[in-house]
Design goal:
Helices cover 46% and strands 12% of the residues. The protein has 736 residues and is an alpha/beta fold. The chain has three domains: 27-297, 2-enoyl-CoA Hydratase, Chain A, domain 1, CATH 3.90.226; 333-509, Rossmann fold, CATH 3.40.50; 517-726, N-(1-d-carboxylethyl)-l-norvaline Dehydrogenase, domain 2 (Orthogonal Bundle), CATH 1.10.1040.50. α10 (267-280) runs antiparallel to α11. The chain is globular and about 90 Å long. The structure holds 3-hydroxybutanoyl-coenzyme A (3HC) and 1,4-dihydronicotinamide adenine dinucleotide (NAI). The site of 3-hydroxybutanoyl-coenzyme A has 23 residues, from β6 and α3. 1,4-dihydronicotinamide adenine dinucleotide is lined by residues 337-343, 360-362, 366, 370, 417-420, 424, 428, 445-447, 468-469, 471, 565.
């Protein structure tokens, strides 16, 4: 039977000489099986094993089977205690999220009903947990009378990341077990605890050092509890709640603490309300309040958007034509060429993942400067308390600076991050071709150059691809993996696997100018600058986009990235790359005034002492007004709505073109690049999902109106027009 290999049930006496302390296990054989559950007797314990691969999600079928097995065990006089465990990789990932839209998750037996059955059972029920116990899986454990976990297990309530609150008693039982502050942290962040942390907090009663003896420990605890008499129900425990009733202000303090991080999100605040309800309402009312809140959130657009992101991340790992068993090449050593802004950050990504990495530069000075920057970054993380000094040193020790190009020959994965210059890159790749070992992957971090042209200078174009990191590379989670026309499946699969090791969200894109994220950025910033020429000011444009949920608007972002960076890119771009489109000259004028952004404390804004807080600057306003005059534009007030549409719809329109051209496989890939590359608000699901929720007919009509006024730009993409006409969404669209 698949999925049970990890803890075969022992059928012999484990330790006959020490039978009084060790459990004498007699296997009495399976009692019943269903498609998603196995139920058997071990001595007088009923052992229920969840078997719903891949993650034991509580689908309706699993819930029905679990109810039947529980009922059978409860009614059987020969059974004195019950153990629930998970087959396969984990205990359970919780409710089956795919049932949320259809409402099947509400069909009886619901998770809350099942957990009530467990908690009210007249005999003890113990959870034996391994792998993951998430969401409803964790809530089931909370309803049990005892919990045993294998070391390495993760236990958590990640519902908030899906835009919902735990809906099966998690917000009511968790604070009763581990206290309010710890429960709030866990539920509102959605971050799981390790088994060890959970044990310390009292959530787990016993830890086992491996999965092999997990079930045995569960059986043993179940029998011990049976001897103690009536099981203690979590719902009846009040001592940890009583502590918090003396400090009711902690909820508002917590709200203030998360205000910045949770801006715009509904679910974190709904979670806090539910935990607060646990304090003041009787348990039966508390769970009702929680369930109502759960249902309201489940139907919200925010939750739909966040669930969309959950599945988008998993979809992105599936690439057409790339078999799931494609060989992944071993990467134990890496090399980065160029230790500037990007190279330094990329080297840190490798070191943070425990991968030894060589960095090379053109001069000793540049190498020293690059290494100093890396050290400074680690130092800053240590001073913020986010990394221990020892860990920082260990990571730094994995980075080996050298001027000797030949050293790169040892690396399994090489990333070139030198200046954005085709001749230089071609020269570097020709040299890589001669020094690198035959299996090495040769990647470029170019942000706009043609990867096929770079690959063509090597004798192994199938081993070349693009790995486009976002700045700062050690922080931003997006990695565009650019598949060249000859990139082999193994090399692509290796880059995808590496992206996960580096904790990046890898999105495969095809070769085109600027790839997906930046290509969509250009029309967005172009429009922002035109709006400023026409009558808006950077402050207004930035406020509108900040209010949409971006961490900052386009002008503040440009100041952060550096106006010099954008200027140099514009200098090197061929007119054909910009399709001969006009761009505003204001950014160039600011650059020429020496205003490079935060680094010079002046850009679109001026910056005070901290160098980070933007303040309006009369010099910028003057430059803007003078430019409008020069262009003969009569400046007028621009409504916020127009700003939002003029910036966002062209970005979405470019996304439609990227889809048409087959640069990405699906619109959700574009959502991911904007979520992880530019901080588009997760609760809106990404720009393409957001467009779908606005209705593509509306987006198309608005674009068409803009195009009628400005015929030289903003032409609606044919795909946008087609989907609008057919009443379809980007989400429904599949490449022909
Ligand atoms: N429901 C439905 N499908 C799920 C699922 C769930 N809860 N969790 C995972 N899956 C699917 C994934 O979509 C994926 O499908 P695919 O192979 O077709 O792409 C497959 O299971 C494997 O998932 P992962 O690739 O994510 O597996 P990992 O081993 O990398 O990660 C995990 C395991 C950490 C458990 C991760 O899957 C996860 O975080 N799952 C979601 C956990 C969660 O949010 N639970 C709360 C659900 S809501 C709830 O319980 C409500 C309750 O309070 C009432
Ligand atoms: P940078 O100018 O900060 O760093 C480039 C480094 O390469 C310099 O330190 C330089 O000394 C070094 N270098 C030059 N010739 C070399 C050689 N022959 N051997 C070894 N090192 C050499 O540039 P940045 O910003 O790090 O960009 C690097 C690449 O990453 C470019 O292709 C750029 O387009 C791309 N990129 C840049 C992003 C950004 O935001 N800065 C974002 C994504 C990609």
């Amino acid at each position: 039977m698949p999925g049970f290999a990890h803890h075969a049930i022992p059928n012999v006496t484990r330790d006959p000489l020490n039978a009084s302390t060790a459990l004498v296990v007699l296997y009495t054989g399976p009692v019943s099986m269903s498609e998603s559950i196995r139920y058997e007797h071990i001595n007088s314990v009923g052992l229920i094993t969840l078997d719903n691969p891949p993650v034991n999600a509580f689908s309706l079928a699993l819930r029905v089977s679990l109810r039947d097995a529980l009922t059978q065990a409860i009614e059987d006089d020969g059974v004195t205690a019950i153990v629930i465990t998970g087959g396969g990789r984990m205990f359970s990932a919780g409710a089956d999220i795919t049932e949320f839209d259809s409402g099947v998750s509400n069909q009886s037996p619901t998770l809350p009903e099942l957990i009530e059955l467990v908690e009210n059972a007249p005999k003890p029920v113990v959870a034996a947990i391994h792998g993951n116990a998430m969401g409803g899986g964790c809530e089931l454990c909370l309803g049990c009378h005892g919990r045993v976990a294998a070391s390495g297990t993760k236990i958590g309530l990640p519902e908030v990341t899906l835009g919902i609150v735990p809906g099966a008693g998690g917000t009511q039982r968790m604070p009763r077990l581990i206290g309010v502050p710890a429960a709030l942290n866990m539920i509102v962040s959605g971050k799981p605890l390790t088994a060890e942390q959970a044990h310390k907090l009292g959530l787990i009663d016993e830890l086992t050092d491996s999965e092999t003896n997990l079930v045995e420990s569960g059986l043993s605890l179940a029998l011990q509890l049976a001897e103690l008499g009536d099981p203690v129900r979590t719902r009846d425990r009040d001592e940890r709640l009583a502590e918090a009733r003396d400090e009711p202000e902690l909820f508002d303090q917590f709200r203030r603490k998360i205000a910045h991080r949770a801006r715009g999100f509904e679910a974190p605040y709904a979670c806090i309300e539910c935990v607060e309800a646990a304090l003041w309402k009787p348990f039966s009312e508390g769970v009702l309040f929680e369930r109502e809140t759960f249902q309201r959130c489940r139907k919200s657009l925010q939750s739909k958007a966040q669930r969309h992101v959950f599945f988008a991340e998993r979809q992105a790992r599936k690439v057409q034509g790339l078999a799931s068993d494609t060989t992944v090449l071993q990467v134990t050593r890496a090399a980065v060429l160029g230790c500037g802004t990007m190279g330094g950050g990329i080297a840190m990504c490798f070191a943070n993942a425990g991968i030894r990495v060589t960095v090379t530069e053109s001069t000793q000075d540049a190498l020293d400067r690059g290494m100093d920057m890396i050290k400074k970054n680690y130092h800053a993380t240590v001073s913020k308390g986010r990394l221990s000094r020892e860990d920082a040193e260990a990571r730094l020790a994995l980075i080996e600076p050298t001027l000797d190009f030949e050293t790169v020959g040892n690396a399994d994965f090489v990333i070139e991050a030198v200046f954005e210059n085709m001749d230089l890159k071609k020269d570097i790749f020709a040299r890589l071709d001669s020094v690198c070992h035959s299996n090495a992957v040769l990647a470029t971090n170019t942000s706009s150059l043609d990867i096929n042209d770079i690959a063509a200078v090597t004798s192994r174009p199938e081993q070349v691809l693009g790995t486009h990191f976002f700045s700062p590379a050690n922080v931003m989670r997006l990695l565009e993996i650019v598949r060249g026309s000859q990139t082999s499946p193994e090399v692509l699969a290796t880059a995808m696997s590496l992206s996960q090791r580096l904790q990046k969200v890898g999105v495969v894109v095809g070769v085109c100018d600027s790839f997906a994220a930046n290509r969509m950025l250009y029309p967005y910033t172009r429009q922002a600058e035109f709006l400023v020429e026409e009558g808006a000011l950077p402050e207004q444009v930035d406020r509108v986009l900040y209010d949409l949920g971006f961490p900052m608007g386009p002008f503040a972002m440009s100041d952060l990235a550096g106006l010099d960076v954008g200027y140099k890119i514009r200098q090197h771009r061929e007119p054909s790359q910009t399709k001969n489109l006009r761009h505003s000259t204001i950014a160039d004028q600011l650059y020429e005034l020496g205003r490079y952004g935060q680094k010079t404390r002046a850009g679109w804004y001026q910056y005070g002492e901290d160098g980070r807080t933007p303040v309006s600057d009369p010099e910028v306003t003057q430059t803007i007004i003078a430019t409008s005059e020069k262009l003969g534009i009569d400046r007028t007030e621009i409504p916020d709505e127009e700003i939002l549409q003029r910036c966002m719809y062209p970005l979405i329109n470019e996304g439609a073109r990227i889809l048409e051209e087959g640069i990405v496989e699906r619109s959700s890939d574009l959502d991911l690049v904007w979520l992880y590359g530019y901080g588009f608000p997760r609760y809106r699901g990404g720009p393409m999902f957001w467009a779908d929720s606005l209705g593509l007919a509306h987006v198309y009509e608005t674009m068409k109106n803009f195009h009628d006024i400005h015929p030289d730009w903003l032409e609606p993409a044919p795909l946008l027009e087609q989907l609008a006409r057919e009443g379809k969404t980007f989400g429904e669209w599949r490449a022909p």
